[in-house]
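Sequence, please.
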């Protein structure tokens, strides 16, 4: 399975009155991790958008495990958990520097036409991207780690 990693330096503005990272900031970090994964695989959201397509979140789930604080670093690990005709599910782990799990999450996405918001298969929008996702999911099914390297 190909797993991308993104380092996050926790900023003071991301914390709440208790000195821990405010829960909504994890959503931003998941996006950073997802963007890093997509770039690692050779694609960009900006490229998709320039062609008139978007990939909105249709579902998201986060389980918080251990607080992160200002001055620490977080590491977001991201992978393609499943990829079908219309839906892609990404998996995430947000980790402390020592590897302690801070949060785990999944997000589900579809590709839509920007002007109508009608769903369209990724295979029709970007066949190479679709093929890469199928490859990394298939690699996960066979216990293969980082098939692109």
């Amino acid at each position: 399975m190909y797993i991308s990693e993104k380092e996050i330096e926790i900023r003071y503005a991301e914390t709440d009155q208790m000195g821990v990272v405010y829960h909504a900031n994890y959503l931003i970090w998941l996006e950073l991790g997802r963007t890093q994964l997509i770039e690692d695989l050779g694609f960009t959201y900006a490229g998709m958008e320039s062609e008139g397509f978007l990939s909105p979140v249709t579902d998201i789930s986060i389980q918080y495990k251990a607080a992160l604080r200002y001055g620490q670093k977080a590491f977001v690990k991201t992978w393609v958990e499943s990829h079908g005709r219309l839906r892609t599910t990404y998996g995430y782990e947000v980790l402390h520097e020592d590897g302690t799990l801070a949060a785990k999450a999944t997000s589900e996405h579809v590709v839509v036409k920007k002007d109508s918001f009608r769903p369209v298969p990724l295979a029709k929008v970007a066949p190479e991207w679709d093929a890469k996702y199928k490859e990394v999911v298939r690699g996960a099914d066979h216990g293969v780690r980082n098939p692109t390297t």
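The longest strand covers residues 73-83.
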